[in-house]
Amino acid sequence: MGSIQELEQRVTAVEKEQKEVRTLAAGASQDVSDYKAALQGHTSSLNALRETQLEQAADLKNLSSDLKNVSADIKNVSSTVEKVLAELKVMREAQFQQVADMRTMRDTQTRHYVDQQQRFTTVEVGLDLVRESLRRSDGGSENAESGLGG
């Protein structure tokens, strides 16, 4: 009967091994489940990161477009400022010319005024000479004085 006992021992050993295998299989199944959950977590994180990167790429593209627009605006403003400065320079030069012209006109008017004063003085002297001559020729009569002199 050694063989029945031996068979019972073998069956008991197989049952024990089977229990250990089931425990190991259950542990492996739990490990697989844990790894699967971790992998799903990583996948979710990577997908979220991808979405963030896509959003940031779109934002960067919009910012790049905005920057190009701002750069174009700055060029336009710079061009306008250059034109205004050129116009101001022309206006300033014209103003300097106008001031010079006004000085020339003032000097010319002053010369004309002095010339007129000299001419009036000459005319007065001439009139005085004519009066004196008329007085002498009339002998100092009232007629000569009342007609020309005063």
Describe this structure in words.
There is one protein chain. The chain is an all-alpha fold. The chain has one domain. It is built from 2 helices and no strands. It has helices at residues 2-138, 142-148. The radius of gyration is 61 Å and the shape is rod-shaped.
Strand-helix topology:
Blueprint: H1 2-138, H2 142-148
Helix pairs in contact: 1-2
Rg is 61 Å
Describe the biggest sheet?
none
Q: What count of helical segments does DSSP give? A: 2
For the terminal residues, how far apart are their CA atoms? 185 Å
Q: By helix and strand content, what is the structural category?
A: mainly alpha
H and E string: HH
| Number of spatially distinct domains | 1
Average pLDDT across residues? 89
Would you identify the regions where 5 or more consecutive residues have pLDDT less than 50? none
Principal-axes shape call:
rod-shaped
Helix content: over 70%
**Count of distinct strands:** 0
Beta percentage is under 5%
What are the defining features of this structure?
150 residues; mainly alpha; 2 helices; rod-shaped
